[in-house]
Amino acid sequence: MQAWRTDSELAAARRDFAATIPGYVAPASYGIARVDSGKLTFGAVNAVGSSHRLPAVVLASVCGYTDRTGTYPLTREQLAAAAVLLAPAEAATHMDHPNLWSWRALLTDAGPSSTFAAFFVATDGDEPVDAYDAEFRALLRRSAGA
Fold it and tell me: Which pTM was predicted?
């Protein structure tokens, strides 16, 4: 089984994923949420300056993000696929993996009608694109202590 144990292996994996997405630009911030009857339950939130760039490109590879701020709907299968794609990063035991762990938790707690949404903010100053994105931005502000 594939495993990324070192920082250089993680960086190589990030570059490899990015190479499969023509025009990919790393987002300023990103996150994921489960949607249950219109209510959002957020997983890990990656604010501006986050060092978690590999999960961003893995998530982008399954949801369609390239370089534009947006809310990207995901099926349970797509989020599960992203978790499988990111799983080799757990071999890097010198760091935590909050994105992967939160994706798994969101999947585990999902009901039969749950859906998911990925949030990508291309540039820090971009305006929210919809009501869900506005909730994501409010969470970003709270997590930053603003």
Answer: 0.94
